[in-house]
Each structure stands twice: as structure tokens, then as C-alpha cells.
Amino acid sequence: MAELKYLSGFGNECASEDPRCPGALPEGQNNPQVCPYNLYAEQLSGSAFTCPRSTNKRSWLYRILPSVSHKPFESIDQGHVTHNWDEVDPDPNQLRWKPFEIPKASQRKVDFVSGLHTLCGAGDIRSNNGLAVHIFLCNTSMGNRCFYNSDGDFLIVPQQGKLLIYTEFGKMLVQPNEICVIQRGMRFSIDVFEETRGYILEVYGVHFELPDLGPIGANGLANPRDFLIPVAWYEDRQVPSGYTVINKYQGKLFAAKQGISPFNVVAWHGNYTPYKYNLENFMVINSVAFDHADPSIFTVLTAKSVRPGVAIADFVIFPPRWGVADKTFRPPYYHRNCMSEFMGLIKGHYEAKAGGFLPGGGSLHSPMTPHGPDADCFEKASRAKLAPERVADGTMAFMFESSLSMAVTKWGLKTSNCLDENYYKCWEPLKSHFTPDSRNPAGPD
Ligand SMILES: [Fe+2]
To answer: Which domain of life is it from (predicted)?
Structure first.
């Protein structure tokens, strides 16, 4: 595969032409009476027309045929995609899943869309307020099928197997330890090369932003220049048997046929695009004296709610870094949180739980459900000598954190058959160390 080119800069106003058609972008206007190369002009709006400039998003696409050239949409099998948050009774327990099983290609061919499984979520699609966590498990490329989401944005976290993503804006290669965001309405088709697995954070009706940095200043965390945007690429390909466009609309799947590949955009300009980001580029900030900074210091992207400081969902990572805090219990502390915390693991092992939480699995700690290090981790970290040490080398854990109280689907609790019934046992060996007659804690061994 020839190396793909990208533009850069989070949310930038970009312009791109397929090099086979120089000058395909109209000069000085969006809607010429006749577009260069006799293309059609089409606007894709990602925000209300009247949003302030800082949040106004749209792109202009110059394409061989407009997107409207398709037969009517019809309902199709929903598979394991759902937005029904009442399928099973609520469960406040700490939940952990073993790695979700990927179907074998020799037994059943599954592509990205037929391999979507909704694990948990909350909120309401029709009022543009909520989120869903999906797991994708697939082994086959989408071929003459593309997908677009009318409900919200997909933040895609591949965990096993790379994704070659064709979009209306061009092609992106997204490998494990990279993420991509495909925003509402953008059509895409995914090629895979092996048994492939990953996580998706879907947010309804809002877009991801870089978090504000406050006293951190102008630089740090995920830097805007590291976000990559595809360059225009088109194919003028007729598909006599019909190209299938799959749409998730109000939580349900629909399909329509058209006679031409949807990746027929010769040139585009605008600030509403798909993008990708390599998690290795995250500039980690952390405590260099004592105690912990709150984990919000690890936020890559946030989808804000209308309440100041409160997110529909944050995407947070726990990258390799130095641990140097003196006189401090260094692993994550025990806590109860008003937020829902879904965690996944791309590779390696997570510092607070050496076993049981595995790459390709996950955990959910719901609002006010207590959690923290397992007993073994507590005992070791309470006695450890506090030299500077590398933390999480070779590892990448992440969290989808939401202010909404997420419900788990029937697939998550039952059908997936991956729920770890023994999770609670990792805290059972915790014992009291209380010494009522002696205030002085025991020091390191
Ligand atoms: Fe937590």
C-alpha cells in the first residue's frame, strides 16, 4: 500500500484536490453555475448554520454525482446495534469483560458494520443528547458497502488489526494505538486485513473538541498539529450490481442501493472532516511532587454537554510515563465517581490490575460504584520504594468517561458471553491494616 498523505491541524479550515484534477476547487466561490470538471457541489453541514464561528462546521464537496443519487432506504437486520437502554434490568455492579471474541473468517464473514455490537449507552438520539459504546468484531472488508451515521460521531479505537478507511474526504490508515473520528453524516467503508477488533465511542449530536488547557497554557496534552486529515481521493467506479449505502438513523439500520461508488469526491474544502491521531503523540502531564492529578489531565478529546465543565463523554488515555511522586500511593486511588467509566485496553497491562483486565476486553464502573486497585496492587504499592519509575511502558489503556449513567445491553451482559463473573473477587482479599494504637504507618520494606 502506497503511503497515504494527510493534511494536519485539529479543526483546521482545509482544502484538497485529487492531483488527477488540478483546479477542481472553484475559485472565490462555493457554487459556480458550472463547477470545474463539471462536478456537482454539495455542502455537508456539521453544525447549525448559525453556530458561532468557533463551533461552526461545514465542508463543501465537489463530486461526480451528488449523494442524493440513490434508491430509497429500507430497514435491514439490526444485528447487535441498539439504542434500547431498557433491554435488561440495571446492574450497579463493577463489570468486567474478557476479550470480546472475534468471529473466524472461515466460519462466518463479518464486516465492520455487521460486526458492530452495542455494549452500553445512555441518553436519547432524537434529542441529540447521549452516547453509546460499541465493540466491533470483524474479519472481512466492507467491499461495495459504506456506512454513515445520522445520529452522531464515531470515535474509533482499533485494538487488533489495522483499518484502511475510505471516506468521502480521502483515505486514512488507522492502526492500533491510533484513533480516528468520523463525524456525523460522513460516508466511509473499512478494509480489514485480519481478524479485527476495537472500541467505538459514539456521541449524539455533539462533536469532539480538544479540552481547554487552563493554567497548563498553550501547549500540551493532545497538540492540534498532530491530528491528521485525509487528502481528496476519488474513484469513478460504476457498480452495476449496486453499491449499498448503510445508514444508522434514529438508532436503526437502513440500506439503499446506488449505481456508483460514494467515494467520488474530486475536491473538497472546509473544517468538517474525518481525522486521526496517534496516541504516542500525547504530551503527558502529571504530578512531579506528591499526590495525584485528577485523571482529567489525560483527556485527549471531549464532547461537551451544555453544562459548563461537564462532558457527554471524554476520551482519556493512560500512556507510558514516569511516576515520580514522593510519599504517595502511586496507583489510581480508591474512589467513587458521579460519572460512568468504561475502560478498555489496547495493549499491555493496566497498572492497577495486573491480571484479568486484558487487551480487547473492558470494564464499566457506574456512577457511585466503588472501585480501585486490587488487593495485590494495594499491598505492593503501599510498600514500594518510591524511586522514579517508568509506568505503563508497552501499554495503552483508555477510558470513555460520561456524565450520563450508562445502561448495559443484553449483548453486553449475556449474549457476548464475555462478562467476567469473578471480577468482584479481586477486591475480596483486601484486609484491614488499622492499628488503633499506633499512628505511624509502616514504611517501605
Ligand atoms: Fe475510576
So the answer is: Eukaryota
**Ligand 1: centre distance to CA 307 (Å):** 21
The mean pLDDT values, 10 residues at a time, for the chain of 445 residues are 92 98 98 98 98 96 97 98 96 97 96 98 97 98 98 98 98 98 98 98 97 96 98 98 98 98 98 98 97 96 96 97 96 95 93 78 97 92 95 96 98 96 94 92 62
Q: Which CATH class is domain 283-427?
A: mainly beta
> For residue 191, what pLDDT is reported?
98
* Integer Cα distance of 84 and 65 in angstroms: 36
CB 229 within 8 A of CB 12: yes
What spacing in Å lies between the alpha carbon of 119 and ligand 1's midpoint?
Answer: 18
Residue 281: burial class (beta carbons within 10 Å; 0-12, 13-18, 19+) = middle
**Domain at 6-279, CATH class:** mainly beta
What is the domain partition of the chain in residue ranges?
6-279, 283-427
Question: How far does residue 335's CA lie from ligand 1's centre (Å)?
Answer: 6
Contact criterion met (CB below 8 Å) for 112 and 158: no
pLDDT of residue 354: 60
Gap between the Cα atoms of 362 and 418, Å rounded: 10
Q: Which long-range contacts (CB under 8 A, 24 or more apart) does 216-219 make?
A: 216/285, 219/283
Residue type, 326: D
Ligand 1 center to 367 CA (angstroms): 10
Owner of C-alpha cell 472481512:
140
CB-based burial label for 422 (10 Å; 0-12, 13-18, 19+): exposed
pLDDT value of position 281: 98
Strand partners, 247: 148, 254
Same fold, 6-279 and 283-427: yes
Q: What does the pLDDT read at residue 353?
A: 65
pTM: 0.97
Q: How far is the CA of 371 from the centre of ligand 1 (A)?
A: 6
Structure-block grid coordinates of residue 91: 446492574
Distance 343 CA to ligand 1 centre (A): 9
Distance in Å from the first CA to the final CA of the chain: 54
What Å distances lie between residue 437 and 187, 383, 430, 434, 440, CA to CA? Answer: 67, 20, 21, 9, 9
Mind telling me the catalytic residues?
A: 292, 335, 341, 365, 371
- Please tell me the predicted confidence (pLDDT) of residue 440: 79
Q: CA–CA distance from 110 to each of 104, 246, 254, 258, 384 (Å)? A: 9, 15, 17, 22, 47
